[in-house]
Specification:
With 95 residues, the chain is of the alpha+beta class. It has a domain of 60 residues: Alpha-Beta Plaits (2-Layer Sandwich), CATH 3.30.70. It contains three helices and five strands; from the N terminus they run αβββαββα. A three-stranded antiparallel β-sheet has the order 1-4-5. It has a two-stranded antiparallel ribbon with strand order 2-3. The protein is elongated and about 40 Å long.
Amino acid sequence: MRQCWRSWLRSASDAFEQLPPSFSAKKVHGRPAYELARKKQPVELKPVEVELYEYKLLEIEGSVARFVIECSSGTYIRSLAHEMGQKARMRRAPC
């Protein structure tokens, strides 16, 4: 399992595009995206380039992973955590 995380961390350690979450403060036609999302209206956001400078996995205990991250502004940490969770659910698939 730890090897899978290392593989994912290496692939995510350079600049990459990240899609901001619908419930973000990014503006869509002058309004924060979260306002539209709360009203169940479609939110179309464009991916933004972000960069991870440092990403250290400290420990994995059950369903909790602790890590330290240094990243560029505009990076959504919850989105990164979601991606990590998706990887964890795909345990049976090769890393």
